[in-house]
């Protein structure tokens, strides 16, 4: 190991310590980039940093990030999720685990309309957790369902993660959206199977609602449910359908989606100046955070690669025994472990650019590898101590819900997410079939 490579290792170690210590990821990346850049690159660090900053600001595809965030925020304020959940609540309430099933289905529909999870998780916590606890649902199951279901939005398109991954990995975002659809639906299916089987084996986990509260099924109920889901279906077709169908680019579709969300809010009579202003303010904060991380990670990676850190890690991975599948499992394991301590944005822009050349050198399809990465990073939302979904649920849940209840509740869903990663490895067509058929990938 050369002195420069040792400095790269130290640089990465300090980053991990700073993030675990509570320093915001963007500031930690920028600080270390400047310090190590000035030491080892001198004045060259300044024009290089300006080029990275300019490249991010000129990226056309990244325009979709604030538009999708705005779309999700407006939807959260238009109360679309409330209507969908109420209809599904009435449809599934008479069976064991029916409210948990309604929660997952609502989250899946909402995930197909927006790539932002904070609004989904918080909204579903307020909507679904109190009714489940009132009907003696297990606290872990009630909160775990919301954490897992609400996090589907980071994978099911339109996903902000996929929008950010595309330009970083030089992949088409439209192809990523098509590739992510089946894995995202697979996850939702696994959640539903777990709930149904678990409640059948252990009825005390999630009893059916009492007969006096049950709503009789019939044409009127089905018509009401369909009416409540129409706005969401409208947005899914407008955004996802236009992208996969090749009618619009992701950036164009994000504009359509933002406008469509405004129309939905107006239809629900929720389109007010205050709500639009608050949505714009939330969009500004989220977008600024995301772009600071992208810029900081870009500069950090340039310095890290200049010092030979990327070459060092690649040589270590390529020298491992047992073939390429063992190397893939090591990379997936490292991403999973780091997900306990570093946010998905940091892993996406700091670790993945180091792993991606290794995966390509081993002969793995970059689109398929990208979806494995995104599936893996989704687990970071449920793995403490830095688990965003757990924080959102705890902040909005009733006082009787303890953090330990949520921790125990998410464990089965983390295992199901790991199973989904394994299934996509064993059956790569789950990822590659739709983009090949629709977009010729």
UniProtKB/TrEMBL annotation:
Primary site of residence: membrane
Subcellular location: Cell inner membrane
Pfam family, one: DctM
Recorded topology in the membrane: Multi-pass membrane protein
The keyword Nucleotidyltransferase belongs to this UniProt entry's keyword annotation: no
Keywords recorded for this protein, A-Z: Cell inner membrane, Cell membrane, Membrane, Transmembrane, Transmembrane helix
UniProt GO molecular function: transmembrane transporter activity
GO cellular component, one term: plasma membrane
The TRAP C4-dicarboxylate transport system permease DctM subunit domain, residue ranges: 13-430
Signal peptide: none
InterPro entries from the UniProt entry: DctM (IPR010656), TRAP_DctM (IPR004681)
Residue spans crossing the bilayer: 6-39, 51-75, 95-128, 140-165, 177-201, 229-247, 253-271, 283-313, 370-393, 405-428
Entry annotated with the keyword Transmembrane helix: yes
PANTHER family: SIALIC ACID TRAP TRANSPORTER PERMEASE PROTEIN SIAT-RELATED, SLL1103 PROTEIN
Protein's name in the database: C4-dicarboxylate ABC transporter
Species this chain originates from: Dethiosulfatarculus sandiegensis
């Amino acid at each position: 190991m050369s002195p420069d490579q040792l400095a790269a290792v130290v640089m990465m170690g300090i980053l991990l310590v700073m993030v675990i210590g509570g320093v915001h990821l963007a500031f930690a990346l920028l600080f270390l980039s400047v310090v190590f850049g000035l030491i080892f690159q001198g004045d060259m660090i300044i024009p290089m940093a300006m080029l990275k900053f300019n490249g991010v600001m000129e990226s056309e595809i990244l325009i979709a990030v604030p538009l999708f965030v705005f779309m999700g925020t407006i939807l959260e304020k238009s109360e679309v999720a409330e209507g969908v959940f109420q209809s599904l609540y009435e449809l599934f309430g008479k069976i064991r685990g029916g409210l948990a099933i309604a929660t997952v289905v609502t989250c899946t529909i909402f995930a197909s309309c927006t790539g932002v999870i904070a609004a989904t998780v918080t909204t579903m916590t307020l909507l679904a957790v109190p009714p489940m606890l009132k009907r003696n649902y297990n606290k872990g199951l009630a909160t775990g369902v919301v954490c897992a279901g609400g996090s589907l939005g980071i994978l099911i398109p339109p996903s902000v993660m996929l929008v950010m991954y595309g330009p970083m990995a030089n992949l088409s975002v439209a192809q990523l959206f098509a590739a992510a659809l089946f894995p995202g639906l697979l996850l939702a299916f696994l959640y539903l199977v777990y709930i149904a089987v678990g409640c059948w084996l252990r009825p005390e986990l999630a009893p059916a609602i009492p007969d006096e509260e049950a709503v009789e099924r019939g044409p009127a109920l089905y018509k009401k449910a369909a009416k409540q889901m129409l706005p969401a279906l409208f947005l899914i077709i407008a955004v996802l359908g236009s992208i996969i169908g090749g009618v619009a680019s992701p950036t164009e579709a994000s504009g359509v989606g933002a406008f469509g969300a405004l129309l939905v809010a107006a239809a629900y009579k929720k389109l007010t100046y205050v709500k639009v202003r608050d949505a714009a303010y939330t969009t500004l904060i989220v977008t600024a955070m995301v772009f600071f991380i992208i810029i900081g990670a870009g500069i950090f990676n340039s310095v890290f690669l200049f010092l030979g850190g990327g070459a060092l890690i690649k040589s270590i991975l390529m020298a491992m025994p047992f073939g390429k599948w063992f190397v893939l499992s090591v990379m997936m394991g490292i991403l999973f472990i780091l997900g306990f301590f570093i946010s998905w944005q940091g892993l996406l822009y700091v670790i993945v650019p180091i792993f991606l050349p290794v995966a390509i050198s081993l002969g793995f399809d970059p689109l398929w590898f990208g979806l494995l990465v995104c599936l893996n990073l989704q687990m970071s939302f449920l793995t403490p101590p830095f688990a965003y979904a757990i924080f959102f649920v705890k902040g909005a849940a009733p006082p009787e819900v303890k953090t330990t209840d949520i921790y125990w509740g998410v464990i089965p869903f983390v295992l199901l997410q790991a199973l989904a990663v394994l299934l996509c490895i064993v059956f790569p067509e789950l990822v590659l079939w739709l983009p090949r058929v629709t977009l010729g990938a």
